[in-house]
Amino acid sequence: MKKTKLVALACTLAVPMALFLAGCGAKPAQSTDANANKESTQQTQTTDNKSQTNTQSTTQTQMQTPAQTTPAQPTYIGEEAAKKAALGHAGFDESAVTDLKVELDTDDGTVHYDVDFKQGGMEYDYDINATTGEIMKSKSEVDD
């Protein structure tokens, strides 16, 4: 009697389980070409959506990548400002001097303007810091 109940119980559970498992992987029967066309269209749309998603993802990644930057170039005061600093320190107007020369130069890693001019039998030589405008050196001597 116990075996009969056990077999009946096993059959009762086996039938629904078999139907459940059989339905999981089965495709619905296609009765018309319209169903086939519909399924084909859905597959195409899915492929298009995946392609569009991949494109968007790539674009977002490219946009999120920070641009490579080059080190900023130092800003120099310019030749005119260097000239004004040297002439102002010497107490002369530009029209009163001769042989005025301004050159960008580097000494010991410091960029500066070398400003040279002559006035009243004297020769003047200035080094003006190219970034700060500070007078780094001033020298005057008798012009020979």
Structure in words:
A four-stranded antiparallel sheet has the order 1-2-3-4, with helices on one face. The relative contact order is 0.09. The chain has helices spanning 2-25, 33-64, 79-90; strands spanning 98-107, 110-119, 122-129, 135-142. The termini are far apart. Helices cover 47% and strands 25% of the residues. The model has no long low-confidence stretch (mean pLDDT 75). It has three helices and four strands; from the N terminus they run αααββββ. The chain has 144 residues and is α+β, with helices and mostly antiparallel strands.
Write down the Rg: 45 Å
| Multimeric status of the protein | single chain
What's the number of helices?
3
Unreliable stretches (pLDDT < 50, length at least 5) are: none
Task: Categorize the overall geometry.
Answer: rod-shaped
